[in-house]
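2024-03-11 09:14:02 INFO worker-7 job=invfold-0412 stage=load source=structure_tokens
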């Protein structure tokens, strides 16, 4: 069954549906994926390219699990507040505009990594739900990981200042990407 808060969290945008309220934002996923790929540039050139691609793809998907475990401590209101200016600006600028910018910026070398970093979202929110009207397949397993390992995180979803937490994480990834 599709839970109510998921349904409320779905917003139509550029022909797709972003599940923005419950899961980490797309720019953060993209940046973590790019950082993982950049880390592999530290490996000796003799490391087989096929193994690199496989490992990066797997780690990018795992990174999605990790990030989707922590939005409870970032600004992700239980319901979409489109009448609220802060909510609107945050989601249009960060979730949407910055996603597009980052995807274009890193497209040449990392388009496939970024796609793997949001693969669970593509499967659940962009294919299963809108096209086949099915329940999410991957995110219930992410929920289990979160409930098992990250239940100690404080619930800051309704706190606007908690956007800072997501910015800190994203900025950490950016610093890592620049340094590598
Ligand atoms: Zn997700």
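2024-03-11 09:14:09 INFO worker-7 stage=emit residues=180
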């Amino acid at each position: 069954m599709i839970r109510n808060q998921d349904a409320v969290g779905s917003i139509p945008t550029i022909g797709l549906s972003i599940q923005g309220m419950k899961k980490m934002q797309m720019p953060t996923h993209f940046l973590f994926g790019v950082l993982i790929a950049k880390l592999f540039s530290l490996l000796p050139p003799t490391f087989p390219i096929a193994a690199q691609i496989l490992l990066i793809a797997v780690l990018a998907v795992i990174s999605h699990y990790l990030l989707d475990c922590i939005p409870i401590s970032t600004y992700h209101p239980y319901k979409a507040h489109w009448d609220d200016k802060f909510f609107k600006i945050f989601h249009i600028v960060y979730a949407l505009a910055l996603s597009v910018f980052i995807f274009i910026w890193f497209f040449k070398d990392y388009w496939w990594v970024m796609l793997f970093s949001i693969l669970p979202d593509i499967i659940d929110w962009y294919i299963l739900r809108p096209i086949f009207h099915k329940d999410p397949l991957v995110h219930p397993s992410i929920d289990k990981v979160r409930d098992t390992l990250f239940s100690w995180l404080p619930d800051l979803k309704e706190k606007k200042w908690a956007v800072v937490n997501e910015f800190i994480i994203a900025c950490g990834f950016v610093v890592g990407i620049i340094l590598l």
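2024-03-11 09:14:09 INFO worker-7 stage=report msg="The radius of gyration is 16 Å."
2024-03-11 09:14:10 INFO worker-7 job finished
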